Amino acid sequence: MNVLNDQSIDLVVTSPPYPMIEMWNKQFKLADPGIERLIENGDGRSAFEAMHSILDRVWTELYRVMKDGAIACVSIDDATRTINKYFKLFPNHSRIQKKFFDLGFNLLPFFIWRKQTNAPNKFGFLQRRIRRQTVSRAAIFGRKEKPGFLTFGILRVPGRR
Q1: Who contacts 27 (Cβ-Cβ below 8 Å, separation ≥6)?
Q2: pTM, two decimal places
Q3: What is the residue-wise DSSP string for 85-153?
Q4: Per-residue pLDDT tens for 14-70?
Q5: Is there a contact between 132 and 122 (Cβ–Cβ < 8 Å)?
Q6: Where exactly are the structural domains of the chain?
Q7: What span, in angstroms and rounded, lies between the C-alpha atoms of 44 and 161?
Q8: Does domain 9-143 fall into CATH 3.40.50.150?
Q9: What is the pLDDT of residue 112?
Q10: What digits encode the pLDDT tens for the residues 114-156?
């Protein structure tokens, strides 16, 4: 983002790679080869923090390029993963929210949506022809002052409950 001027962006909508979700391992390992050793050694907490330290640099740059009053909407999913035969939850949402807060962003109400998937569940069982519900969340952050163009309410899709 170094090609962007300071305080030049009004709105950011992003879905970053989520730490500790296996499909993103390769990207994080390219940025920090030490992450692979941490995972292989069963040190999930340190791998989680190492992955987030990569994202922290992005969030810091994001704060620099966003105008006062701008908003960022960040899709955030937590991760579940088995490390050393133990099933664990890695709370990406709270880690990212804390970083944004520490940078000086205002935390605004987030929203959660349900989505259907045919993917294997978190325990590895494939549920063929059975749709299951999963949830995702999007956190909304404001830079310094309250955005004048953002309103909160319930979004309803016509014809849906």
Answers
A1: 17
A2: 0.79
A3: TEEEEE-HHHHHHHHHHHHTEEEEEEEEEEEEE-S--TTS---TT--EEEEEEEEEEEESSPPTT----
A4: 999 989 998 899 999 999 999 999 999 999 999 999 999 999 999 999 999 999 989
A5: no
A6: 9-143
A7: 39
A8: yes
A9: 81
A10: 766 655 555 555 555 445 556 778 888 988 776 655 555 554 4
